[in-house]
Amino acid sequence: MAIERTLSILKPDALEKGVIGKIISRFEEAGLTPIAIRLQHLSQREAEGFYAVHKERPFFKDLVSFMISGPVVVMCLEGENAVLKNRDLMGATDPKKAAAGTIRADFAKSIDANTVHGSDSLENAKNEVAYFFRSTELFPYTHKK
Ligand code: CMP
What we know:
Layout: E1 3-10, H1 12-17, H2 20-29, E2 33-40, H3 44-50, H4 60-67, E3 72-80, H5 82-90, H6 103-107, E4 116-118, H7 122-132
Antiparallel strand pairs: 1-3, 1-4, 2-3
The chain binds adenosine-3',5'-cyclic-monophosphate (CMP).
The site of adenosine-3',5'-cyclic-monophosphate (CMP) has 8 residues, from loops.
């Protein structure tokens, strides 16, 4: 299986609940290593730019205002099959539909405050990682390329 990189965001509700350590442990235990990690309070412009693909969707405004309601943790995760593995660990976007034992089933309270974001394809992962991190900010200490 290929070593991939993906973007993970721990959303403001994760920080508010004090569960970022628990969530990062789940990634590490599954073989996903944070090779870049930063606590950041997104500006409106940064959040709108990140979610630009959703700008015509009815939930866009609420999504952006939630994402700027408090700090987030942005991370680049690296590991085997990282894109899909991260999505499996997160569970469905709507926590009511998320499988038992997934991050969203365990911590999220609504589709907006759904605790984590993860890239949905390898191509988007490349763009999303580059949106937040320069290549010199990535430290692949486990899977050296
Ligand atoms: P995320 O993975 O960060 O990507 C887009 C976000 O929009 C999603 O998680 C949800 O938090 C939010 N969202 C709100 N309503 C919807 C919806 N109906 N479908 C998809 N995403 C939604």
